[in-house]
Amino acid sequence: MTDVLHPSPTAARATARQRGLQRAWRHRGLYLMLLPGLVWFVVFRYWPLWNAQIAFKDFQPVQGILHSPWVGLGNFTQFFHSYYFTQLMTNTLLISFAKLLIGLPPAIVLAVAIHESTRGRLARFTQTVTYLPHFLSWVIVFGILLAMLSPSSGLVNRGLQATGLDPVNFLTDPGRFRFVVIFSDIWKETGWSAILFLAALIGISPSLYEAAEVDGATRWQRIRHISLPGMLDVIVLVTLLRLGHILDAGFYQIYVLYSLPVYSVADVIDTWVYRQGIQNFQFSLATAVGLFKGLIGLLMIVVANRVARRYAGQGLY
């Protein structure tokens, strides 16, 4: 027998379900805003997982995904035993880590400089000028680089010639091409990356800066003991997310900038996959390499997250 104070389990579940529905209806506007994002994830992130099975098949477009023969790990072993495997992994990891290690500090410094600036107009102008390159396509950036680095008419080579030095073909010299890739990426993305760090700085309570100023702290001491610790969570988060894409060295940038003379130092996994998968119609091999990249990215996030939690006390999860 049940009473009002002690309802039966069935009645309690019905009441909880009714309250849940009422709460969902009350916040229906928020759920409607979530809907486009959920649809995007289903269509572009989860539905392609079904097609990823062709990584383990000898995919034949005529037979379709279901009726193509299974080959097990054959596509993976073909990639690992490829003549270019070592070269591709070396180029990809070198360019990715260089972009991460060299590109992250300028974004942090730029965010701190804008935050510390006492001239509002100058800070807004600097922020606008630095993040505008993010919206340029790599084709346009390639045109800018040609105007700057061309051996015949580039501004840099004209400067070298004016000082009596020989012109340098930066875009076809294997010894200099990686520097062009890394520093053009830093120029393009530093301002955009600084937005995240600037948002973290704005979130720090102004009372901390006021108290430090009253105690006589210099500007450098305020940056060292308030700004940088306040940005630590975001720095760790950005680093972990970038490590998850460590095998994405920047397909569009490399594909636009590189040429046959610099293949040995510029050919990365993505460009090789494009040639094999799209131009040579080896869709199964391209998918297998894509799964391999995802697995390495997941392992990098797990390992880096454990290291960050152990030594910095911060982590992604």
TrEMBL record:
- Where is this gene product found? Cell membrane
Source species taxonomy: Bacteria, Thermotogati, Deinococcota, Deinococci, Deinococcales
What biological-process terms (Gene Ontology) are attached?
Answer: transmembrane transport
Q: Which Gene3D superfamilies does this UniProt record tie to the protein?
A: MetI-like
> Which residues are the signal sequence here?
none
Q: How does it sit in the membrane?
A: Multi-pass membrane protein
Q: Which GO terms describe its cellular component?
A: plasma membrane
Q: Where does the record place the ABC transmembrane type-1 domain?
A: 89-304
The record's similarity note reads: Belongs to the binding-protein-dependent transport system permease family.
From the record, give the transmembrane residue ranges: 29-47, 93-114, 135-156, 191-209, 230-255, 281-304
Predominantly, its location class is membrane
Swiss-Prot/TrEMBL keywords: Cell membrane, Membrane, Transmembrane, Transmembrane helix, Transport
- The identity of this protein, by name, is Protein lplB
Matching InterPro entries, A to Z?
MetI-like, MetI-like_sf, UgpAE/MalFG_permease
